[in-house]
User: Fold this.
Amino acid sequence: MKVFFRNIHLYLSLAAGLVIMTCCFTGAILVFEKELQEALNHERYFVKQQNLQLPIEQLISNVKQKYAAAKIASVKIYPHPERSVEIGVSIPEKGNKKENGVTVKNEQIQHGKKEGSEGNREAAGGQKGKSSPPAGGGGRPTHTAFVNPYSGEIIELYNYRETFFYTMFSLHRWLLGGDSSIGKTITGVATFIFLFILITGIILWWPRNKAILKQRLKIKTAASWKRMNHDLHIVLGFYSAIFLFIFAFTALAWSFKWFNDGIYTVTKSSMKPAEPPKSIVQADKKAINYDSAFVAINKVVADVHYYSLRAPNDSTGIFTATVLPLSAHETAADNYYIDQYSGEVIGSLKFKDKNVGQRVRSTFKPVHTGSIYGWPSKIIAFLACFFGVTFPITGTIMWINRLRKKNKPVNDKVLSKQLVSEDDYEDEV
Assistant:
């Protein structure tokens, strides 16, 4: 029976090993993306604390003055007094609509001369008349303007698509293709195959007695390099298998629509989010701005990682405040809805109030990236992914050694004994 599972394990690994190794390598890099970004670009994220922060509308005005084509999509504010303010902006493309855009240079986009990346958004924070509320909050920003909240200085106009980490992300998800490319299908199939590789690996690892169990739980460092290679594959594979299985399983939600939909089917939940409330139009009142919305949300909630504000899209829309509580994981944010005329919080959708399917689906990202329990789970995720990079290599070496062993003369017992592989691993105990 083990011969059957060994063949399945081998041939599936040969078929998908290179893609699996690529996904594990890029995944290991992306585990600490946030920490690396902040360490390598400290001046982008952190500023010197001063006495008084400028109004949000002033920061928005500075961005729009420098980049005339920019349409404000959102404003992200951190309670930490030394953090910069992140203003999400959408910059319309000039001439065509390429998905990935071109390199952002400040001098290129001054006075509206910028070739951007995706779509358009209406600017928020302006008021052209009593019946014309600030617009914004629709779609996704194409760039982020990092602004010093004390001086109003625009530190950097940042485009994630032009970074090293986006390249790693694109390689991890789509093999540098796109969301509808063949690369997405290849990584999805390889990830699905990886699950069976891990299952058959555990079956092959399973010991027949306690003596063999002891050997398969530790690496024999004093052995030959062939035995060392064998132990690295077997022992590290056992310790990381459960984590790699979890990472591969959660990855399927991004690779296959049927898997993503299945989460809601199994939990008997709706994918459709709850409908937010609407503002009551008041012709005699002006719509509030970002500063008023920020004051309103601060009255309701505190002790958060950040506040993210989006302006309404039309006269009945609402300001949406997304806040991440300190005790929550990265996708467990709560939404609060603010009437654009009264400035009052008129509703909310907290993470705990979402249906089971939505809560389960939201946990897939922090589980997949290893951020679910902070640094401890990130370290585990990094090590598991690092080990995952080595398994196709050590496994291939084991396969080559086995082929060489089969070609050796039957009576050459000494040399045969030195070629330790999984075939005779149990015989050595």
